[in-house]
Here is the input.
Amino acid sequence: MLAAAMRWHPPLSQHDLGNPNCKNSPMIEPQWIAAYLALGGVVGFFAGLLGVGGGGIMVPMLTTFFVIQDFGGDRHTVHMALSTSMASIIVTSISSLRAHHRHGAVLWPSVRTLTPAILIGAFGATFVAAMASSKALAVFFVCFMSVVSVQMLLNAKPKPHRDLPGRVGLSLAGLVIGIISSLVAIGGATLTVPFLTWCNVRIQHAIGTAAALGFPIAIAGTLGYFLSGLNAQGMPPGSIGYIYLPAVVLISSSSYFTAPMGARLAHSLPVATLKKVFAGLIVLLCIRMLQSIF
Here is the structure.
């Protein structure tokens, strides 16, 4: 398995090593470095400003980038976008977790109960994704994000209806959250916050707890996409499994700095209006994603 993990690309000739236009060259062209840094900057800013994960932006944009670069072929393009997005969430999830913990907004007993099922769901879903086609994954992603966009446009929020369920109920909820989060490469807040709010959890604690759960989702999803993609053919240089590491490093680097900027502006900008703009942007990006795949 270790040998397969380290098999990033075929052996290169001396000519290939110095040729950035060669498909097997490990070099990244400057315009793609700029593109990944810019994507990370936008994702981090919106995550800090609106409190939403970057998967809705990253997955369609990475899909488009990978299609242009001919990464993954027809079979694995969306798999690469999902896994690279999931791995990029790790850094921002740690930062978010620490911030909410400092404010005492994390319900750690609920986190401890939800986490095992979330780990199982997020990890297992990656192997289901590995068996699906890129087109099927793209359609599922677009359908899910369309529902999310409508919810954001309408500002629809579940009304408190009941108390938190017991261990079995929370575990079932965690399993569903983990599965869907992994299949669409999100940190889980889109699902966790409404669920906890529905269970009479204060919104501040719901957001803080969802932030804490984003870390195990990202870890389990990243590990699963790494393992399930070890034998995938046509991966570009710099990939481990389905994960394209250069993009992960560049996106994480810029988002780390722009997320606090967005958070600082959250109290001075019209966030409600920007959420609607963000929802519209997701819809446009999803349409572009489908066009690139089909």
Q: What stands out?
A: Strands lie at 239-240, 243-244. The chain has a mean pLDDT of 84.
